């Protein structure tokens, strides 16, 4: 992983449109704005075409962000590994995490994004059952974003702008909603997410799901790309990032709330999965 700090490399951007919803973000001053986006806590949305060496890296992302490719290819850092984002595919970048997107050398990349702003009082778009990445019909979302941009630029009435905003948010929700292939797995992770501090074993999880351990491993690998124990660690770390970013809880208290014996074991696990220590997230 190259560095752990924020990095903005704008070189390579060929075309770009953006519509801002967060009027308090100084970085968005002067951008085309639509106050209706804020109804869904959408900080900004847009689309762009870029070449290498474009890069956008955030050590602390303040909200969920959907990134989807409509032409060419790019790459996204997911769970500490680079994943190629091809045409017709999307990913959900979780809040309070180290995230990075980059153009691929020698390849053009056209993509759209919808960035939310989430805090302790709001519900993240990314849930325990949301896909990390997957196929998506990106064209409708692309046209909705362009439609909103054009409506705002031409000064169309708010009712017309609202239709585009509704579509954009619904397309994101459609992708982020659980793709439940087996109700038993869904019920298991809903139960686990409510008791992250519990010392779950594979046997107990399989019992709740009414599956054999091997069946549970296979279904989790298919749906999440992780083993059951890796999914448990992912959910704990996701909640840890949220608590570190949205609250002032002491690290020792966060560790206890998530089932770690002490802050040392929590810090070790956190750094292994996130590439940065818990305390560094608050610096």
How would you describe what is shown here?
The chain has about 280 residues and is of the alpha+beta class. It has helices spanning about 140-155, 160-175, 185-195, 200-210, 215-225, 230-245, 250-255, 265-275, and strands spanning about 5-10, 15-20, 40-50, 55-60, 65-80, 80-85, 90-95, 100-105, 110-115, 135. Strands 1, 2, 3, 4, 5, 6, 7, 8, 9 and 10 form a 10-stranded antiparallel β-sheet that branches. Helix 1 (about 140-155) packs antiparallel against helix 2 (about 160-175), helix 3 crosses helix 4 (about 200-210) and helix 7 packs across helix 8. The chain is globular, with a radius of gyration of 19 Å. The model has no long low-confidence stretch (mean pLDDT about 85). Pfam families: HTH_18 (PF12833).
- Largest sheet composition: 10 strands, antiparallel
* Protein structure class: alpha+beta
Number of helices: 8
**How many DSSP-defined strands?**
10
What are the secondary-structure elements, in order, as H or E? EEEEEEEEEEHHHHHHHH
Overall shape: globular
Range of strand content: 15-25%
- Rounded Rg: 19 Å
Summarize it.
With 283 residues, this protein is an alpha+beta fold.
